[in-house]
Write a structure and sequence with these properties.
205 residues, mainly alpha, 10 helices
Amino acid sequence: MPTTQAKKPSRIQVRNRKRILDAALEVFSRHGYRGATLDQIAEEAGLSKPNILYYFSGKEEIHVTLLNQLMESWLEPLEQLDPEGAPLDEILRYVHRKVEMTRAFPRESRLFANEILQGAPRMAPHLESGLKPLFDEKTALIQSWIDAGRIATIDPRHLIFSIWSTTQHYADFDAQVRVLMPAESGGLDGAEAYLDTLFRKLLTP
């Protein structure tokens, strides 16, 4: 019996899904999951609410779809830590990648932060199955560099937490940063050089 292949979505369907997801990203990053509504997403997308529900079953499916996409891109810089590279260069390259992601994807950073602040109700399985094994792998790699005397003795877990917090701060607390550093376009102009100096001094044996 021949198998039935799923019908490929049309260009209009692909475009509308992208339009909805982009609108939802804006709404969720601004209001959080609890504060966001389908009406707000529909208004942001310039589509009707029934049109939104044609593509997604509801707010939760849209949110989960965004989080799934986010995890793929969010983990990539950490995955790229190369065991064969120079340890200090690899870690500083990771810091620079995180700054660039903050610059390019501030809404995604706030979406992730809002989910975690709510206890990760929709993302917990991904944290366990995706992030935790990668985190353990890369902290073990950093520990091996420490044991070999190639970087200073620090706790690898807190090092990664520090990189996350210092880079993503500029997106998650953008409104505050812009008030305190109004001439710096949100503070990112000097952030990369500052964080490079900070982590270089911390990690140099």
